[in-house]
Amino acid sequence: MKKVRARLFLVIGAALVSVILSLPSWPAVYQQLPKALTAILPERGIVLGLDLQGGIHLVLEVEEDRAVEIAVDRSVKAMQDLLAENGIAIERIAREGSMRVRVEASDEQTLDQIRELLGDAFPSFFLASHEGNALVYELRETEADRIKNSAINQALETIRNRVDQFGVAEPLIQRQGRTQIVVQLPGVQNPQRAKDLIKETALLEFKLLDESSDVVRELPARVEKGQEEELRKKFQDRLPEGTEILFEHVPGKQGLPSYSIPYLVRRQAVLTGDVLQDARVSIGDFNEPLVLVTFDSKGAKEFERITAENIGKRMAIVLDGVIYSAPVIQDRITGGRAQITGAFTTEEANDLAIVLRAGALPAPMKTLQDLTVGPSLGRDSIEKGLRTTLIAGALVLVFMVVYYRVSGVIADAALILNLLCLLGALSGLNATLTLPGIAGIVLTIGMGVDSNVLIFERIREELRQGRPVRLAVDAGYDKALLTIVDSHVTTLITGLALFLFGTGPIKGFAVTLCLGIAINLFTALIGTKVVFDLINRRKLERLSI
């Protein structure tokens, strides 16, 4: 009797816990609850997936070759700094192609010093050729492969950080193949803003302007929006070596058209955003939003040195090849802080701060697939999924009552308990419910009925042999136990494999399937057995089965 009572309390307790955990999944009910109760409940229940509540689906590809070029450019800057620190004068150092660095010196003795110094400091490069007064170093293939693979992983982590700060619930961000990244953001209200935030490279650079060239005096004060490339082509053969034309975009005001201001800047950045520690939005003197950036200790020292050496010169703040401001350096700037100003809205300033805090993407990304799923499609999927579940459940309930009579009613009660516990488990785990997840729930209903059918048929066999009801029920459960456990465990192993190695919707199906199987073992072997044990206290001579 004590064992029956303990199992009865266990079943009732499981039902109550499931009801409580599932409350956040019903907003209309949850909002009416007292605050004292909602304080101890989860903040949210089941989260609907992309196919049910709408959102965006992106497949992005990292430009691997560009990642290698960026890494080599950084090595060129490091080589130049190292040579300067050791007092070695060079004529020129620059990247050639995507993986080569050319270093030119005035004499053979200097070349020997360069060869010895760079060979020790940069083992990822090897000396490819010696051409007159120049040394050509090339990046090793193994290092290039490492940079490419690292770029994918870094892009994955950077996108994940940006999405987390953007505040999307239950995003799916994962690698696909060698160079592709899949991003699914359910429930996004402003898809274009989210896409811009994800795909923006956010490469922050500080570059000095070249104001001594004759080209500067020939550049127009402004150009119409969309005419930037024409201006670049016009001056491309006359630009001093190591310079480029970049633009500051100025939006139109009071009905006037927007325009761009051209600047001649040195191609090589004096400081990049990889030394950035923090970025936050602030309000300027004229009540305009701006972004304050803070450098780490290394960046602060470098920024102080650069500003001290270039007082009176202009330095452009460049993000993804666009100039945001180009102020004159008035004095040495200490403290490791700078500000990015521009014609921002508050929302744009917030997004800029997010991408700067999350870090720059290691390379630009191409969009291979861009889908926006509307919520109307999601509502249609939910309605059809619920209708399918209800129809399947109703047919099963009717069949069990017709075929097994009173015992069928007990099985139906166990099936309802199964669905209730499954809903509570999904809510408690904040699981994401997808359309395949609904299919997993329907499959769980079928497996729940299958377990009861096995038990009831065993009980029928025992009753035909003339055994008393109590002994027949016990024997039926004992003989069906191994068969039920075996079938459930093998299916559970399959479900776990789908969860571990599957992606997106497949994982949603696996979650509901695995939870349903585990809960079904409890309801079929414990839930129904408790009811039969309570009935058998009356020492029945016949069982309606």
Fold and architecture overview:
The chain is α+β, with helices and mostly antiparallel strands and 545 residues long. It folds into two domains: 2-52 and 376-538, Multidrug efflux transporter AcrB transmembrane fold; 200-372, Gyrase A, domain 2 (2-Layer Sandwich), CATH 3.30.1360.200. It is built from 16 helices and 20 strands. Strands 10-12-11-17-16-9-13 form a seven-stranded mixed sheet. The longest helix is centred in the last third of the chain and has 54 residues, at 375-428. It is elongated, with a radius of gyration of 34 Å. The two termini are 24 Å apart.
- How do the strands line up in the largest sheet? 10-12-11-17-16-9-13
Largest sheet: 7 strands, mixed
SS element count, helices: 16
Structural class by sheet pairing and helices: alpha+beta
Share of helix, binned? 40-55%
What's the CATH topology label of the largest domain? Multidrug efflux transporter AcrB transmembrane fold
Shape field: elongated
Could you tell me the radius of gyration in angstroms?
34 Å
Low-confidence stretches: none
CATH first level of the largest domain:
Mainly Alpha
Quickly give the CATH architecture of the largest domain.
Up-down Bundle
Total domain modules: 2
CATH superfamily of the largest domain: Multidrug efflux transporter AcrB transmembrane domain
Please, what is the average pLDDT? 83
